[in-house]
From TrEMBL:
Keyword Disulfide bond: no
Entry GO MF terms: rRNA (cytosine-2'-O-)-methyltransferase activity
UniProt keyword list: Cytoplasm, Methyltransferase, rRNA processing, S-adenosyl-L-methionine, Transferase
Recorded name of the encoding gene: rsmI
Subcellular location: Cytoplasm
Domain of life the protein comes from: Bacteria
All copies of domain Tetrapyrrole methylase, residue ranges: 5-205
Membership in a protein family: Belongs to the methyltransferase superfamily. RsmI family.
Protein name: Ribosomal RNA small subunit methyltransferase I
Function: Catalyzes the 2'-O-methylation of the ribose of cytidine 1402 (C1402) in 16S rRNA.
Documented EC number(s): 2.1.1.198
Species whose genome carries this gene: Christensenella minuta
InterPro entries: 4pyrrol_Mease (IPR000878), 4pyrrol_Methylase_sf (IPR035996), 4pyrrole_Mease_sub1 (IPR014777), 4pyrrole_Mease_sub2 (IPR014776), rRNA_ssu_MeTfrase_I (IPR008189), RsmI_HTH (IPR053910), SAM_MeTrfase_RsmI_CS (IPR018063)
Amino acid sequence: MDVGKLLLVATPIGNLGDITLRALEALREADVVAAEDTRRTVKLLNHYAIKNKLVSFHEYSREARFEEILGLLAVGKKVALVSDAGTPVISDPGYELVRRCIEKGIEVESIPGACAAVTAVTLSGMDCSRFLFWGFLSPKQAARRRELEEIQEKGIPCVVYESPNRILKLLADVCDICGAETRVCVCRELTKLHEESLRMTAGEARAELGGREAIKGEFVVVIDPQPAETEKLSEQRIAQEVEKRLQSGMTKKSAAAEVAKEYGLPKNRVYGIALGSGKRE
């Protein structure tokens, strides 16, 4: 018996008209559609009068669901994997299913289409000949700020996803870590009726959204962390600046934080240099 095929089908990120002809063909031919959120996917299938078996497959899926899908593929069935919106396996749990299929010699085919990250990049007006995709940053502030320090050090545009509940916290951290003058493109409700893109500094975007009565919709943010000229400061100069603050009674942690903020430097770099300065902890 022939082995089946796993189809990775990109679906619209908002506007149902953005689905491709190949995606529709794949969904109609599939024996089963495995969806991250069946409630959203059934609306798409109903819109195009597609009737086939729909099962849930998400980050909380148990081993039994993996075995069920792999079992269907093993007996020659076609399974279409779709995410909430956009291209599956990008910031969703589908990669584990793909990995298992590859290990078992099951064919995997990608049906390309909409992707929120790429859509935001094209709208940003930034030089994204090279860019970094980060997905969702940590919901915990300390971890999120460390991630932003990494992004700042890369010095190339970075795409992140964020919820309406945390967008102001994200922009506040971008202002603090990367600088309030950092260019951003904050995209909301991409391809939908109330789509908007705020192309401005992080500080301006924070003020704009913070002044609204309510913040709704899913966000894609492109951050352009331009390395400051001050990052060219030698380690000796940085150590001197830290030492001056240590002499005034500051701790190494506080001294490093102040120098990093004043000169627009990554905190972890300054703190690493601070560890070799003076004795005060």
